[in-house]
Amino acid sequence: DIVMTQSPDSLAVSLGERATINCKSSQSVLYSSNNKNYLAWYQQKPGQPPKLLIYWASTRESGVPDRFTGSGSGTDFTLTISSLQAEDVAVYYCQQYYTTPYTFGQGTKLEIK
Amino acid sequence: QITLKESGPTLVKPTQTLTLTCTFSGFSLSTSGVGVGWIRQPPGKALEWLALIYWNDDRRYSPSLKNRLTIIKDTSKNQVVLTMANMDPVDTATYYCAHQRYNNAWYPLDYWGQGTLVTVSS
User: Fold this and answer.
1) Do B62 and A36 touch (CB under 8 A)?
2) How many Å apart are CA B100 and CA A52, to the nearest integer?
3) Which of A23, A42, B28, B109 shows a CA-CA span of 20 to 30 A to B48?
């Protein structure tokens, strides 16, 4: 299995400030034939299912605010929220869908400082 | 508009077999490049991918749970059924089903059901 490790486990950021969450995979999730990284980011608020934010490491899902940016390639990835809003308080998960089993990171809890 | 909804028992006893149904709309599992997966989340813990079935009946399972899981599809009913044998209290979790598609490349799980909480207790 590909192991996904996120850092930090929790993060407190002031409103309007930048939040950065990291994700590392135990092996590359870059598919060489199409040069796409099979890495997704999800946001999960209490009592709700995960919501897809970013796929192929950097493509924003339709309707996701542009303050959410995904970057990285191979084994190292980052989710950046450029200016934290109150509604961004949630747990964020990275997931590889390069190969089954599609594994998730342990989650990063984002709070307001 | 794609929607998915999980259904099944809220309480099962240890050693029993859990049967969950995902009923979906807005797509067909007979269409090339479509899949439906199951994911679970114990209370307060992380997401765990369980299984996935594709339009061509290809089935994938979590290696750690493979001996206990079975996933099947009923395209006429727009349903996917997951069974998990020999339930244990550690299997207490919210169980989600989700949609996946292929369009020149695989997308991740993009549409999710609301989830159903299953408690394992005697």
Assistant:
1) no
2) 12
3) B28
CB atoms within 10 A of CB A66: 7
C-beta pairs of A80-83 under 8 Å, 24+ apart in sequence: A80/A18, A80/A19, A80/A20, A80/A21, A81/A13, A81/A18, A81/A19, A81/A20, A81/A110, A82/A18, A83/A16, A83/A17, A83/A18
Across the interface, of A1, A93, A97, the residue whose CB is closest to B63 is A1
How far apart CA B96 and CA B3 sit, in angstroms, is 12
- The pair of structure tokens assigned to A18 is 């930048």
Contact assessment for residue B38 and residue B51, using Cβ atoms and an 8 Å cutoff = yes
pLDDT bin (cut points 50, 70, 90) of residue A11 is very high
- Give yes or no for A7 touching B (CB within 8 A): no
Residue A34 to chain B, least CA–CA distance (Å):
8
Tokens of A89: 């308080």
User: How confident is residue B106, by pLDDT bands cut at 50, 70 and 90?
Assistant: confident
Do B113 and B23 meet the contact criterion of CB atoms below 8 Å apart? no
Nearest to A41, CA basis, from B109, B116, B93, B38: B109
Judge whether residue A111 has pLDDT over 90: yes
**Residue written as tokens 């207790």?**
B121
Nearest to B18, CA basis, from B96, B84, B91: B84
**What's the whole-number mean pLDDT along residues B53-59?**
95
State how far the Cα of B82 lies from the Cα of B8, in Å rounded to an integer.
10
Q: What is the CA radius of gyration of chain B?
A: 14
